[in-house]
Amino acid sequence: MTDKTRDGAFALTRRTLVESCAAAAAATGFGVSARPAFATEPGDPAPQMLPVRLTVNGTAHDLTLDTRTTLLDALREHLDLNGSKKGCDHGQCGACTVLIDGRRINSCLTLAAMHEGDAITTIEGLGTEEQLHPLQAAFLHHDGFQCGYCTPGQICSSVGMLSEAKAGWPSHVTEDLVGKADFTDAEIRERMSGNLCRCSAYPNIVAAIREVADSSAGTEL
Fold first, then answer.
1. With respect to CATH, is domain 49-125 assigned 3.10.20.30?
2. Residues 41, 197: Cα–Cα separation, whole Å
3. Please, which residues bridge with residue 52 across strands?
4. Would you say 96 and 73 are in contact if contact means Cβ atoms under 8 Å apart?
5. What letter does residue 128 receive in the DSSP assignment?
6. Kind and range of the H or E element at 59?
7. What interhelical angle do 202-215 and 134-141 show, nearest 10?
């Protein structure tokens, strides 16, 4: 597993280290193995499959899914819509945010079978390469991303958040509960607090959202 040096001593090389780790993983069973999405044990009931029609970005898709399949997994694994990201898979990071009938939702926390008949919008359905959604363009203009992993969820959440504000929904920091929300940094940060950015591009994200909020006052996004 090691190579001899000129004086006869043994030296550990990168190649032998990788080979040793692979051999150890295989011997101890710690290697990565292919497993079904839902591991079963002897005696467990068979998965219950259900036909589901999901309307995503204006297109209807007929699927047959395990009843336990989340909307996020249906989008990524069955429809190849990989813009929505699986971050924490516990509804804590917001990377999986999509829009259901215009309202933002963590797609990792809801079952696909619950959304038959709903209008589901993912980041792929917000704009096109030729005509970006205003928030997509603003994120580019203000460099509101670094690694980009959270960006689809950030943008979908921003669209839903601005609609909530225009509908008069207050946040915990809104001073006038019956008036129009004032898009201060504090207001935007509070309303977007469910979306985390591990690169900490928050100042640029806030600037992008404020630009769109100011320019789209009184219009639909």
1. yes
2. 37
3. 63
4. no
5. -
6. strand 59-66
7. 140
Model confidence over 73-121: pLDDT tens digits? 999 999 999 999 999 999 999 999 999 999 999 999 999 999 999 999 9
CATH number attached to the domain at 134-215: 1.10.150.120
Contact 53, 116 (CB under 8 A): yes
Name 196's Cβ contacts closer than 8 Å, sequence gap at least 6: 87, 92, 93, 94, 95, 150
**Cβ-contact 127, 205 below 8 angstroms:** no
Q: Which residues contact 179 (CB under 8 A, 6 or more apart)?
A: none
Amino acid at 124: E
Question: Which whole-number Å values give the CA distances from 178 to 45, 162, 219, in the listed order?
Answer: 53, 16, 20
Tally of residues, the chain = 221
Dist CA 116 CA 182 (whole Å)? 36
Contact yes or no for 152/83 (Cβ under 8 A): yes
pTM, full prediction: 0.78
